[in-house]
Amino acid sequence: MKARIDFHGNAIGAKHVKYLASAGQALLATSLPKATMELVALRISQINGCGFCADMHTKDAAHAGETPVRLNLVATWREATVFSEAERAALELAEQGTRVADAAGGVSDAAWADAAQHYDEDQLVALVSTITLMNALNRLNVMIQQPAGDYQPGQFG
Yes or no: is domain 7-144 CATH 1.20.1290.10? Predict the structure, then answer.
């Protein structure tokens, strides 16, 4: 399988991806736990059907020490007992933030309040930013049919 277009080989595409990557790097300097970011990124990628991002975030999380059990249960996190209450709140916010077109009111007040109980303002900003960035990257990779499976942890720095 080959991508429809080489985004990195196109001057405009490369610049666009560079700015998206910079936005992601800025989030790494926050106090939102890296494990939470990876779990959220993986779940959003599963929902959006982005194989490339699901591959990347599964491998990056495993490389950072995440367990196979937790990675395998992200898709069914509601029934799984391996996630903290804070992680569950983040995953709920991520799902609702990803499926805004499916809900008349977007993200519910209950989901927001639950997340706000576990994360301070800076962490909430980082969480919302992670959710929006992952949705943008998923949509880009899905549209161009970026192939999955060859990603190596740390490949993009």
Answer: yes
